[in-house]
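Notebook entry, structure prediction.
Reason for the run: the old model in the group folder had no record of what sequence produced it. Starting over properly, with the input documented here first.
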Amino acid sequence: MLWLLRSSLVLLLAFTVGCQALEESEPSSPNIILIVADDLGYGDLGSYGQRLIQTPHLDRMAAEGMRFTDFYAGSPVCAPSRCTLMTGLHPGHAYVRDNWEAGGWGEFDAEGQLPLKTGTETLSLRLQQAGYATACIGKWGLGGPESVGSPNQQGFDHFYGYLCQRQAHNYYPTHLWRNGEREELEGNVWKNLTGKHYAHDLMTDDALAWVETQNENTEKPFFLLLTYTVPHLALQVPEDSMEPYLGTWEDPPYDGKKGYLPHEHPRAAYAGMVSRMDRDIGRLLDLLESLGADENTLVVFTSDNGATYDIGGAHSEFFESNGVLRGAKGSVYEGGIRVPMVARWPQQIPAGEVSETVGAFWDFLPTLLDVANAPPPLRTDGVSLLPALKGEAAADGESERVLYWEFPAYGSQQALRQGDWILLRRGLKKGDLEPELYNLREDLSQTLNRAAEMPERVAAMMALMAEQHEPSAEFPLPGVDD
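New structure, fully documented this time:
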């Protein structure tokens, strides 16, 4: 009997040690919140040089986390940029490469953009498979109602917000969508400047409630994709957010003649919209702290493309929304694709760090799967930025990493960054095939085209550009696929 007792003790000890080793080898997965603003420029945050608009909570995120200087959106416009984020593929490989509309601008026209295909490997689906509770709250743009691209068909347990980008051009919409069901917003009138229900506030409240509910579920970590529509036009914001800016500067009225709703105080409205979003991100950070989830949650903030050009009363030049960058939304110049990116994760990301690591939207898929301790994607153009987030030294060859964009609209455009150099071709549709070459470290504003003096570099980068482009039946690239 003594030998049996000894054997049992040995087995019990081995089981205990094994369980401890398993716990050590399989660390718990953190919560992830990815916040994506809409048309917010590189220079719209205080931590990126903004002087007129107050963004204290996002600035706090930068002070307590890491700010990236060389981070890029997936595309110069909404839907294709979001596609690169969801699929981890750059615009030369991604399925959605431009804004494609299911309907027109009428109140009862069909809603939605080109849907993602069934079977697409999306960030949300992979995290869902890894055991995460998943939600998308805000603007979608990758598939309308009852389509295979709708969020609930692409790995999200919960969705609330705008399915269609065109509907998102009004902050007082007649309806929003909740898990495939249309919810009417009584008191809001089609194309009215104001109304009873401000969509941004409704989506914020839904996000806070969802996070609080998920925090009570100790069995699953959560992933929240919070896709705010601020500060995309039209200019609309409740008075309490606009009031601090009224009378601060000259603010000529916008008459609405360029396609968006008129506004008496457009500059105060734009600033108020950005500050209201900042306020609500502060509420989210405070909630995480009150729930005790602060140190176990990675929060990332970015924008889907650069600030829009001066149309619809936006006044991006007045606010210097794109900083010193050339170009704006719709352009593959830096002002159209370089965006802010701030990440905060207490005890994991060094506080107050500024990273020059080059990254883009297609890096989110491998990065967040890495954060979640989930298997890597089957196919991606991205790399995991987790080492950079943790302040680790760059790997050999990282400084010469290649990033590629193509955009069939706005004249047909291509861009390729390699190291400090970026090569652009714009106006391809008109037969303008002459490249532009800029050194971004020496010439961030892209004022000096070096193409003529560096033909060998141009040729090498043109060859890389050709390698990155896969022809698309849905979105042929004029001037290249002709």
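Summary: The chain is about 25% helix and 15% strand.
The old model has been moved to the deprecated folder.
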